[in-house]
Amino acid sequence: MSNDLPYGEIYAPIYEEYTSVQGKIAEVGETVAFLERYCRGGSALELGIGDGRVAVPLSGSGVKVEGIDNSCSMLKLLTKRTDKIKAWEGDISHFRSEQSYNLVYCVYFTFTLLFTREAQIACLRSAAEALDDEGVLVIELGVPGLDPLVGGQQTTKARLVDHENTIVNVAVHDPLNQSLVSTLLWFSGTSVRRLPQRVRYVYHQELDTMAECVGLELIERWGDWGRGEFTERSERHISVYRRSRP
Length: 246
What we know:
By secondary structure, the chain is α/β, with parallel strands linked by helices. It has two domains: 7-143 and 201-243, Rossmann fold (3-Layer(aba) Sandwich), CATH 3.40.50; 154-199, Single Sheet (N-terminal domain of TfIIb), CATH 2.20.25.570. It has helices spanning 7-11, 15-21, 28-36, 55-60, 72-81, 117-130, 204-213; strands at residues 43-47, 64-69, 86-89, 101-106, 131-142, 154-161, 165-174, 179-188, 191-200, 216-222, 236-243. It is globular and about 55 Å long.
């Protein structure tokens, strides 16, 4: 498949199985509990809603959830799971909503699939405009590794190895644009899947600066959905922003 296809079109046929082996299904309870704190009984908008892995249980807790995704295949998976969530096909970089939300959230490193700094800033601006006066934006991002990569250098890294699966990531690094063009090779039993992907990684300090540019300020940062401390050893962060106060 072409890298020009939306991420969801490539991953939709195997998304539930893939997120399960990556441990994402197991942590849904903590994710929903974290998010519900900011919109209990209110409204939420998910950027990159996918198959509803998070949105469906969040909706089940009494939150009115809506979502955006650029993959028609992912949205079809969502409609098979529930008819209670309004979701539409669109670009999370540039969107407008007729209503304001208590919570806008973007999880599972979806933000990095926006492949330019300009697209990422546009996403933050659109999200800020969709918040109500007391609303918050929650973003989950990985912490970029500090391996001394040079431009054009190819790296190979094992992402997962267990008794049934081996997932290997082969990537080419472009440090000038903070981008990785990669292919995941997923070996499971006798099958091999090839899953292309490209991301623009973001350090948390840069994310804060981009957020400030669109009128958002950081209010919390955690190392995981269980509200563990964010430290120099953290492999990801959960960052919470609100509109800047005058």
